[in-house]
Amino acid sequence: MMPETIEIRYANGLLRAKLRPSKRTTFKEGVLNMKHVIKHDLNIDLARKAMKKAFEMYVAKFEKYNPTANWTSENQVKIGFEAKGVKIQGDVDLRPNEIEVDMSVPFLLKPFQGKAIDVVDKEIKEWIGKAKNGELDDVEA
After folding, report:
1. For the whole model, what pTM was predicted?
2. What angle do CA 136, 138, 139 make, to 5 degrees?
3. What is the mean pLDDT of the chain?
4. What is the DSSP string of the chain?
5. Which residue has the higher pLDDT, 114 or 70?
C-alpha cells in the first residue's frame, strides 16, 4: 500500500510530501510503478515492426542517458536508461490493439517519471504513424 505522506530527511531539514496515488501507480520499497497504455490499430506483425524501429531510434536518440532496449520475446522488451545516476527500468508488452508500458521509477526521481513515459509514448506513436503510412521500410533507424 502506498503511504499518504513521505518524509525525506536531508542536511538542511526535512521534506514532507503528500502522495496522490492513482489506479495505475503503485509504491513498493521506494519505487513507483506506473502503467501506461498506447492504443494502436495495426496488425500485430506491423505493430512489432513499428516498436522495433521506435526502440532502435530511442537508443540512438537518447544515447547520453545510456538507454537499453532488450527484447525478451517476440512481444516483450525491457527498456532502461539513467537519470541523475539512477537506473530507470520498464517493460513494454505488445498486444493486439495496445502496447503497455510499465515503468519502475525510484521515488526520488518521481519528477522524471512522466518524462520517461512521454518519451517512450512519443517514439512509439511516431512509429505507429509511420507504419500506418507505409513508411517503415523507407526509414533507416
Report:
1. 0.68
2. 75
3. 75
4. ---SEEEEEETTEEEEEE----TTEEEETTEEEEEEEEE--S-HHHHHHHHHHHHHHHHHHTGGG--EEEEEETTEEEEEEEETTEEEEEEEEEETTEEEEEEEEEGGGHHHHHHHHHHHHHHHHHHHHHHHTT-GGG---
5. 70
Residues in the chain: 141
Question: Is 111 contained in some domain?
Answer: yes
As a whole number of angstroms, the distance between CA 46 and CA 42 comes to 6
Residues 6+ apart with CB under 8 A from 126: 54
Instruction: Give the model confidence (pLDDT) of 91-117 as tens digits.
Output: 999 999 999 988 877 766 666 667 777
47 compared with 17, residue with greater pLDDT: 47
Task: Say which CATH number the domain at 98 has.
Answer: 3.30.310.80
Range of the domain at 123: 22-138
